[in-house]
What does this fold into?
Amino acid sequence: MDWRVPLSDIDYGPEEEEAVLKVLRSKWLTMGSVTQQFENQFADLVGTKHAIAVSNGTQALHLACVALGVGPGDEVIVPSLTFVATANAALYTGAEVRFAEVVSSQDLTISPRSIEEQITTRTKALIVVHYGGHPCQMGTIMDIASRRGLAVIEDAAHAPGASLNGKPLGSHGDVGCFSFFSNKNLCTGEGGMVVTDREDLAEKARLCRSHGMTSLTWDRHKGHAYSYDVAALGYNYRIDEMRSALGLAQLRKLAGSNARRKAITETYRERLEDTDLEIPFNPPVGEPAYHIFPVLLPRGADRRQFIDRMRASGVQTSIHYPPIHQFEYHGARYTGVSLPTTEDVAAREVTLPLYPTMSEADVETVVSAVLGAL
Ligand SMILES: *Cc1c(COP(=O)(O)O)cnc(C)c1O
It folds into this structure.
């Protein structure tokens, strides 16, 4: 389908093309100096001591769980209103998850009160998601975590460049995880990053990113090492130099493109103020990354019909998210889960197009399609 306004679009230009060509011509294709630079600059962005680049955000979340020692017998509390990978990362380790509620239809991040209700003697960690690039209630969440001795993983897939009280998202908890998938604010096709201030977690994540091997091809190439040992059950979660080069080029655009996302969001909010739509995160808290623009249809409205009408106007929309506890697999594994607020907002949510290269005219096209569809 040829959309008049797609849901998202990628801001690539000659910078990205040249960066990748330079890597190709160097013939060093994976985990070398470009990746090191990407990691260093990303650590600077988030303000953490360590950044470990991987091939996607799901691997970042899994490595975070592995580094924290999450495993069989443990429970990890996650929101249900998120991408399925948030919960799966914990399940891969043999741990079980417990689903927590969102705060409200205004704040679609995980509810601190619901977190407290889900804590058991088995709880080891929380994975909180900065939905749409909007900060979770990190002050309260970190208080609960330190009081109960729990580790906190921030799924910051939506939130590169965002902050709360001046502190970048991804640096509030024990570990932060980012995704650089094609539709994210910083995009490399596939890609991800683990960030942390903790030396022990960084070391474990680095080790397990590459088969648990104690030295890397790069070190041996540089003459630093002759052989290697395997010190843990690791994975191949390495990133390649082409993607790291894309990441570096995209990092230079991030502040500008997040500012543009914010301006478009503000226009949407003004233009849709007098409709029946409920607009979450209004007013916003902290400095969000404005990854997506979610709206809630009035209760009882026919969402399928709304989306069809938007499609007929050439406007692509999406749903963030079908709740995880209602998926066939997760619903069968965890029966009887009831999250009324999550279920209510998830049934009414529609995501409107939002991307930095969107023009004023594109925004108007979406707004008139919405007014027509309502
Ligand atoms: C995209 C995303 C992920 C997974 O990232 P991938 O790079 O696609 O593996 C995890 N959590 C959230 C909230 C995401 O949006």
